Amino acid sequence: MARTATLTFEDRSIQLPVVEGSEGELGVDIAKLRSGTGLITLDPGYGNTGACTSAITFIDGEKGILRYRGIPIEQLAKNSTFVEVAWLLIFGRLPSQAELDDFRERLVRSAPLHEAFKHHFEGFLVDAPPMAILSAMVNTIACFPRRGAESESPEENFLENAAQLISKVRTIAAYSYRRSMGLPFIYPDFKLPYVANFLHMMFSTPYEQHIASREVVDALNLILLLHADHEQNCSTSTVRMVGSSQANIYASCAAAVGALWGPLHGGANMAVLDMLEAIHKGGISAAKAVEMAKDPNDDFRLMGFGHRVYKNFDPRARILKQAADKVLGQLGVNDPLLDVARQLEELALEDSYFVERKLYPNVDFYSGIIMRAIGIPTNMFTVIFAIGRMPGWIAQWKEQHDDSKARIARPRQIYTGPNETEYVPIDKRK
Predict the structure, then answer these.
(1) Is 200 a catalytic residue?
(2) What is the pLDDT of residues 210-232, one digit of tens each?
(3) Catalytic one among 307, 325, 351, 427?
(4) CA 157 to CA 152: how far, in whole Å?
(5) pTM of the predicted structure, to 2 decimals
(6) Count of beta carbons in the 10 Å neighbourhood of residue 227
(7) Is 307 a catalytic site residue?
């Protein structure tokens, strides 16, 4: 028997269906609330609102669980790659060897940008924010239609568009970095796999190719894989909001880049480095910083510790901590900011204040450390986040697009402005 919840308001009552997810999550379906009672819900920030049902990602913040299509993130981090995870998220299952090979080939073919793209980059100042460039350029991809696209089946067209986005986003990112540095663009190398090719386009020179170590490639692959999707966060919800109008996949993902750009969303790992720099430049010891963070009368915050969703250890952080140890050990980087980070980590993990409140280092803390060690500048951190999140955005867009019952998103509001007011001519206004 289907379960229901009863809502009573004054002399009216309504039975609302209770929806149960595959992991036992319960939600009250309020689709008929307004027509039945005249009421709407008010939930600023949507913290208690389920905007959709989805079969892509499952999170249990209390237990520290993250699964893509049912597969624990720990298994994917150990056995898979970012490219395979992209396929898994988008198509709902692990690919066969033939499908994976075909997808990799599509990514290789899709990596170069049309030569006219260079003129678009030249239109930006050299110090333009990389995320602004990324958003504009993701939208611009749609302005360069592929030859033969009009004769493709819908399935083939979608697959090719997905490959275009996942592949070109790293080329755009590398070009935006090189534009900011006044360096010539480096074309993709068709012989290199996804992550190594990105690092090549970032750091090679016309006279010497950058060859990243296995530890660096693996660590960046993990960062991308662990950021590939994270349920209905701000940027993902933006994809669904924009896509609900039947906007194309490029416009929807470009909008998501804009949402991710916000410092409360994608800028968290940048905030970690800003904090480390402030501690270092201020001559503050790690121990003093920890004490400042515990002081309720001090405005100082320890960035990169705790998480809004995970009330336990962020499962992604456990994985990246091991990668960070390997990368720092292999590179032998002598960086005072990274020294501060390691000291903060050690102190916080042993401090009862942080342990009791479960304020453990999160994924942003370790991803920032790794990218700093690799040589990726701080203003590119959120761009790397966007590269990693692109498969999730595509998967969410596809899931909504394939839902025949999906409606255009149109939230309601509670109006709090003035009541009906007469227009006053300008010569009679005080």
Answers:
(1) no
(2) 999 999 999 999 999 999 999 99
(3) 307
(4) 6
(5) 0.93
(6) 24
(7) yes
